[in-house]
Amino acid sequence: MTEHMTETSGPADLDRRLADALERIGHGMRSLTQRTAREHGLSPLQQQTVLALSRQPTVRREVSALAAEFDVTTPTMSDAVSALERKQLVTRSPGADGRRRLLTLTDSGEEVARRLTPWDGPLLDALAGLPVEHRAVTLDSLLHVIAELQRRHVVSVSRTCTTCRFFGAHAHADPAAPHHCHLLRTPLPLTDLRTDCPEHQPATA
Fold first, then answer.
1. CA 58 to CA 193: how far, in whole Å?
2. Which of 41, 57, 171, 194 places its Cα 20 to 30 Å from the Cα of 165?
3. Is 141 in a helix, a strand, or coil?
4. What is the number of alpha carbons within 13 Å of residue 198 lying toward its C-beta?
5. pLDDT digits (tens, 9 = 90+) for 114-153
């Protein structure tokens, strides 16, 4: 047994097991998304769209921007938005140039978003079982992975702290607040790291 464990241990195997664990979580979340979307008469992409528009209503979103964010083609995203328009959950309005069509939830769309908000409750409950410091370190690690995947063009759009030009990594000795936000001019606790920041400005490559 000891020999077997030695053969399968080490950094490379750890990375493989971490990737496998993330993949399993991904499978579970996709299944949960499909189930909750179906319960509300939506496709998974339509559900993503409603939730995205609800989370940050002040962010001016267009079909092309959502297509990049969700890593789908613009025609596919346009079809999803058109279906939401038919369901009277989303409206489009001209942008500043009079051509781009900005997306906004209707009152009915906001109500659907409120009903959808706890869709990932099982995952949140599972995370709540971990100590806060463990969750904070996990968030920090995952956001650095996301930043690297974006640099490798695996993740198309990311508005996380770790992909922002204002982010200063490991600028402080405090393990609970090791990073720095140059926009806020303050140390950045791990518990305050953002996954979708409205003030985000992409870091230069």
1. 20
2. 57
3. helix
4. 9
5. 999 889 999 999 999 999 999 999 999 999 999 999 999 9
Contacts of 54 by beta carbon, 8 Å cutoff, 6+ apart:
105, 109, 110, 113, 114, 117
User: Could you tell me which of 100, 80, 76, 75 has the C-alpha nearest to residue 90?
Assistant: 80
What tokens does 40 get? 């509300």
Q: Three-class SS of residue 167?
A: strand
Question: Token pair for residue 115?
Answer: 């009903």
Output the six-digit token pair for 38: 């179906």
Question: What domains can be seen in the chain, in order of their start residue?
Answer: 12-118 (1.10.10.10), 130-192 (no CATH)
**pLDDT value at position 86?**
97
Please give the structure tokens belonging to residue 8: 């399968």
